[in-house]
UniProtKB/TrEMBL annotation:
Coiled-coil zones: none
Positions that bind Mg(2+): E237
Catalysis performed (reactions): 2 5-aminolevulinate = porphobilinogen + 2 H2O + H(+)
Name recorded for this polypeptide: Delta-aminolevulinic acid dehydratase
UniProt pathway: Porphyrin-containing compound metabolism; protoporphyrin-IX biosynthesis; coproporphyrinogen-III from 5-aminolevulinate: step 1/4
Organism: Cryptobacterium curtum (strain ATCC 700683 / DSM 15641 / CCUG 43107 / 12-3)
Length: 328
């Protein structure tokens, strides 16, 4: 296609004033784009701020509905739940306990705030004593196939508690298929799977591990999460999960992997989620608190870039703030 050239074509003409800028705008943020992560913990009266994530709290079940009502009042109506269990063990048993922390939280929200759509994160790292995302072999290797049945049991237990979408984040091979099969067998064929299909072994997860109390006690997660150097492999991971029955795929983290997000979206034209992770949030917050950046401007620009790159939905800790700003 041949565009005009200067002086007949002057791109600045369509930047001269808000009215024409609005006509030209290709991407716009909406409160419907956001999924807010929530950390639930046992106990009562607990609303503990995570030190590396100002404004983000772990809440106990009795304070959960107040949190949900605040979100709904702001127009945020998607949450993803993470649980901090009372007890951890080798196999992360509480993950599939029908009275585990996430299951209780799920039931509570569904009963008291049916307008909220509840997604549950499915993984073992919050529940295992060693903090890895699966069951270990004797040598400490995370055993892929042994982990699949544990994840499937967890997902079914979440669905029984009323979870409206399960989101496996472990990065085991074959888990989407295993979870789909288990959900279908249990009569939950209408519960969709949001797969963390393309999840990188990232330094940006640091603050989350404080939030979810899930740091591995030895080693790291590079034997299952992806190498940050690989984009083709990220596209293949999404392809595998779509083939296994995922209803949404994900790229995580978001900002350092916008190229991968863009490729996944353009390759499959499939519902695609980006996770704007804890480290991305913490960096913006820290700089804003120091007066080094304009927080509102930077957050809106960041989220816009994620949507422009191809995200249909964005999981973000900024959701409450952005909802307020968009409503002004
Ligand atoms: Zn995990």
């Amino acid at each position: 296609m041949q565009y005009g050239s200067f002086p007949t074509y002057r791109p600045r003409r369509m930047r001269n004033g808000e009215a024409v800028r609005q006509m030209m705008r290709e991407t716009e943020l909406s409160v419907n784009d956001f999924i807010y992560p929530l950390f639930v913990k046992p106990g009562t009266g607990r609303r503990d701020e995570i030190s590396s994530m100002p404004g983000i709290f772990q809440v106990s079940l009795d304070l959960l509905i107040a949190e949900i009502e605040e979100l709904l009042a702001l127009g945020v109506h998607y949450v993803i739940l993470f649980g901090i269990p009372a007890a951890k063990d080798e196999l992360g048993s509480e993950s599939a306990d029908d009275h585990g922390i996430v299951q209780e939280a799920c039931r509570l929200i569904r009963q008291n705030a049916p307008e909220m759509f509840v997604i549950t994160d499915v993984c073992l790292c919050e529940y295992t004593s060693h903090g890895h995302c699966g069951a270990l072999d004797e040598d400490g290797y995370v055993n892929n196939d042994k982990t699949l049945s544990l994840l499937a049991a967890e997902a079914v237990s979440h669905a029984r508690a009323g979870s409206q979408m399960v989101a496996p984040s472990d990065m085991m091979d074959g888990r989407v298929g295993a979870i789909r099969e288990a959900l279908d067998a249990a009569g939950f064929e209408n519960v969709p799977i949001m797969s963390y299909s393309t999840k990188y072994a990232s330094g940006y997860y640091g603050p989350f591990r404080d939030a979810a109390d899930s740091a591995p006690s030895f080693g790291d997660r590079r034997a299952y999460q992806m190498d940050p150097a690989n984009a083709d492999e990220g596209v293949r991971e999404a392809a595998l999960d779509i083939a296994e029955g995922a209803d949404m795929v994900m790229v995580k983290p978001a900002l350092p992997y916008l190229d991968v997000l863009s490729r996944v979206k353009r390759e499959f034209h499939f519902p695609t989620v980006a996770y704007n992770v804890s480290g991305e949030y913490a960096m913006v917050k820290a700089a804003a608190q120091n007066g080094w950046i304009d927080e509102r401007r930077v957050v809106l620009e960041t989220l816009l870039s994620i949507k422009r790159a191809g995200a249909d939905m964005i999981i973000t800790y900024h959701a409450k703030d952005v909802a307020r700003w968009l409503a002004e």
